[in-house]
Amino acid sequence: MNIAFIGLGNMGAPMARNLIKAGHQLNLFDLNQSVLAELAQLGGRISASPKAAAEGAELVITMLPAAAHVRSVWLGEDGVLAGIASGVPAVDCSTIDPQTAREVAAAAARQGVAMADAPVSGGTGGAQAGTLTFMVGASAELFATLQPVLAQMGRNIVHCGEVGTGQIAKICNNLLLGISMIGVSEAMALGDALGIDTQVLAGIINSSTGRCWSSDTYNPWPGVIETAPASRGYTGGFGAELMLKDLGLATEAARQAHQPVVLGAVAQQLYQAMSLRGEGGKDFSAIVNSYRKPQ
Ligand code: NAD
Asked: What integer pLDDT is reported at residue 236 of this predicted model?
């Protein structure tokens, strides 16, 4: 299949590599020339603009940082919608607000293009290994068209509902994750300060009612879970800046829906303070350091 792939960063580049490996012909566009050159070596074709990449493509995929980039790449003068043929399916995998996802999809629909939102979880490791989870907002028909291609980049391809619902699923999950990591941090640090062995405490939590992914798989206390970023200096995981971005999307969506997100707002402020301390590049579980004396 001839696929346009736009946005070849930490996530997009390995996803595109997996599609090339699966035998697709890729039209590539990014602002970063060096990643284009690298993927061209693997057989991808470099395009001069999103419009040029979309011309002749049978599917368009984008993986961009935030809503403003998605708007400009899709709706701009040299954007995807200026080049894509009517009837060609399209999917944006960036994490953005549901409102923008719906607006861009509506603009696509006006020219006969069915567009889905399909944000991912699984991080750069999942993108490289082709084991991402895709949360897809699309009609049943579009989902059926996209599913086989997404399955070449991911393991779980979940149909969440109509367009926009993929983003809703993603931001609600990450709202809960951001909060639960702070809860586990608070409990672990209190236990330590009061004098219990943190391994014992984690063992109790993980076989009791406090158990959650942030405690039993990704515990923020160093040494509790060997494979967690906490055990390697909070490197190589899900950066606090990305968590901050997702909490911002959640609180903004909540504002628009007049829905309270009390703990989400507090969590956002705590990650914000972490960013101010210059720790935004660390894994988000380093939020535990807000509760500890400097180590
Ligand atoms: P990134 O910043 O590494 O990559 C974004 C790419 O988009 C860059 O190569 C950049 O040059 C390109 N770009 C920006 N503006 C462009 C434009 N106008 N035209 C063409 N290319 C443009 O970001 P990433 O880590 O790959 O994340 C992409 C998306 O995936 C984000 O929405 C992020 O929230 C989401 N996400 C990231 C992770 C992760 O662990 N990195 C996990 C899940 C979801």
From this structure: 84
231 and 270 co-located in one domain: yes
Longest dimension (CA), the chain: 66
Q: Which atom of ligand 1 is nearest to the CA of 245?
A: 34
Helix (H) or strand (E) holding 3: strand 2-6
* pLDDT of 294 strictly over 90: no
- Count of domains for the chain: 2
The answer to whether the CB of 64 is under 6 A from ligand 1 is yes
Same-domain pairing of 133 and 172 = no
Six-digit token string for 282: 């660390």
Domain span including residue 88 = 2-163
Inform me whether the pLDDT recorded for 237 exceeds 90.
no
Distance 106 CA to ligand 1 centre (A): 23
Residue of 68, 65, 61 whose CA lies nearest to 88:
61
Distance from residue 9's CA to the centre of ligand 1 (Å): 5
Distance CA(228)–CA(222), nearest Å, equals: 8
Phi, psi of 227 (to 5 degrees): -90, -5
Q: Are strands 45-46 and 59-62 parallel, antiparallel or unpaired?
A: unpaired
Which ligand 1 atom sits nearest the alpha carbon of residue 66?
32
Asked if residue 295 is part of any domain, the answer here is no
- The 3-state DSSP class for residue 48 equals coil
